[in-house]
Amino acid sequence: MAPIAGPRPSRLSPARSFRAFQCWLTVYRRIWRSSIWSSILGPVCYLGALGYGLGSLVDRHGTASLGGVSYLAFVAPAILASGAMNTGMGEASYPVFGSLKWNRIYIGAQASPLRPADIFRGHLMFMTMRIAMNCAILTVFVWAFGAARSAWLVLAFAAAVLTGVAFAAPIAAWAVTVTVENSFSYLFRFVMMPLMLFSGTFFPLSQLPSGLRALAYATPLWQGVALCRAFSLGTAPGDPLGMLGHAAYLAALAAAGIWAGARTYRTRLYV
User: Fold this and answer.
1) What is the secondary structure of 159-212 as a DSSP string?
2) Rounded distance, CA 139 to CA 36, Å?
3) pLDDT tens per residue, range 14-54
4) 6, 12, 14, 16: CA torsion to nearest 10
């Protein structure tokens, strides 16, 4: 009897990963209209309601705790980072689960020469594209609303994309193992919402008790918020080591997710 073959090796193949990415592009060409409005209207509503609406009240009582900048300038780069997180988590959760259970795109890909790692990397490339698209739109709005204080805003866009990928890669690695869709409601309720509220997005972390403050400093969203805010306000050149530390944290998280994803996809998709 011939021995049972083990899982195919997950050697890196950019060409095969790009093939998987092209599959998602084909799907997106059919559904892009359903996402474009949320990508545009969401940032406008956040910047308008928080930056101008709430911001007018905050600015009236002084901005010393914000570093002397307007609330709009303070909150806009944080909305950029948190928006990247939201996009990354959204693209890496239900779409991954649905590719196994609903539209079964992953099941079809199994019958092709693509390896599980290629399927994962191709989908992650598409997630990165979606994160970059949404971040680009929001960056333009930040500039148009006059919220940026420096031309370093261009690097804030890159920092936001890195933040989104740092969330997308580990969550996709986990999502492919999920068997019950209700698991994602806990992810959004008990991970995404607390991160948005307690990562320095809407108020300085100095306002938190010391214990919560230390916990907030350890979160990936705070790293992204700190990077985006420093670039948008033009304070990044004064703290190069700090900026490098934030970027290294996010890059390490993304790399760990990519490493884990190649293995969880192989475990789940290999037949």
Assistant:
1) HHHHHHHHHHHHHHHHHTT---TTHHHHHIIIIIHHHHHSSSSSS-GGGS-HHH
2) 15
3) 889 999 999 999 999 988 888 877 777 887 888 888 888 88
4) 0
User: Distance between alpha carbon 248 and the CA centroid of its chain, in Å?
Assistant: 16
Q: Is 144 exposed, middle or buried (0-12, 13-18, 19+ CB in 10 A)?
A: exposed
**Integer Cα distance of 255 and 261 in angstroms:** 10
Q: If you search the block for the tokens 């944290």, which residue do you land on?
A: 249
User: Pseudo-torsion of CA 5, 9, 10, 13, nearest 10°?
Assistant: -120
Task: Name residues of the chain where pLDDT drops below 50.
Answer: 1-7, 9-10
* CB contact at 8 A, 174 and 264: yes
Structure tokens given for 146:
């006059």
Residue 267 tokens, joined: 């475990």
103 to each of 29, 94, 109, 128, 267, how far by Cα in Å? 16, 11, 12, 21, 20
